[in-house]
Amino acid sequence: MKAGKSDSRVDEYLDKHPQWREQFLAFREVLLAIGLNEDIKWGIPAYLCDGKNLIGFAGFKQHCALWFHQGVFLKDKAGKLTNAQEGKTQAMRQWKFAPGEEVPRDLLRAYVLEAIENHKAGKKVKPVSRQLRIPHELEHAMKEDSALDKAFNKLTPGKQKEYAEHIGSAKQEKTRLSRLEKSHPQILAGIGLHDKYR
User: Which phi and psi angles does 116 have, rounded to 5°?
Assistant: First the structure.
């Protein structure tokens, strides 16, 4: 089996997360040995098969996690996977690791090989498109400010949804207005809500 191509930007990511270095090196060793190619997507290491994003990993305060983008199709006999964001995530499944927890390389290898098999078989969850619901506060602001209206409508549908959900999901009107106020300059600049993480 031919090893995958590494990417020096992943080394930089590892240097920024020394607390997860051992786990990250274990992930990387398994993923590259299997033949997946490294990249950086949304600011985190990504592992590609046939140019498609298959697996990624990231470090957080309390844990690090390995993400299988179409993990819903994995058998998960060892019970390692959880839904990345219950109620939001359809296909992605994550495998979390606590500080100092050893990575079972053979088991990880089996999961990765199954993910590759599923990819080659064309197993893929097609995202369900949710209707764009513009909150009242944003709608009112766009009627009052033609520059905001124009800028919002220039955003991609995904970025529009991010702003609409971010503003509209607040329970109190005061919070919705505060979120709108903070988002206003970003929308005018054509920047997505989560662009800094991509």
Answer: -65, -45
Contact criterion met (CB below 8 Å) for 58 and 67: yes
Locate 128 and state its tokens.
């369900």
Nearest CA to 146 out of 187, 100, 98 is that of 187
Q: In what order do the strands lie in the sheet with 44-49?
A: 37-41, 44-49, 52-59, 64-68, 93-97, 81-83
Answer yes or no: pTM beyond 0.90.
no
Which residue(s) pair with 188 in the sheet? Answer: none
Strands (E), 87-180: 93-97
CATH numbers and ranges of domains, the chain: 8-120 (3.90.1150.200), 136-193 (no CATH)
Quote the DSSP letter at residue 78.
T
End-to-end CA distance of the chain: 31
How far is C-alpha 19 from the geometric centre of its chain's CA atoms?
21
Q: Of 94, 30, 17, whose CA–CA distance to 61 is shortest? A: 17
CB 32 within 8 A of CB 24: no
Residue 148 CA to residue 144 CA, distance in Å, equals 9
- pLDDT per residue as tens digits for the range 140-155: 999 999 999 999 999 9
Identify whether the C-beta of residue 142 lies closer than 8 Å to the C-beta of residue 183: no
Q: What would the two tokens of residue 61 be?
A: 């305060």
Q: Where on the phi/psi map is residue 82: left (φ > 0), alpha (ψ -120 to 50), or beta? A: beta
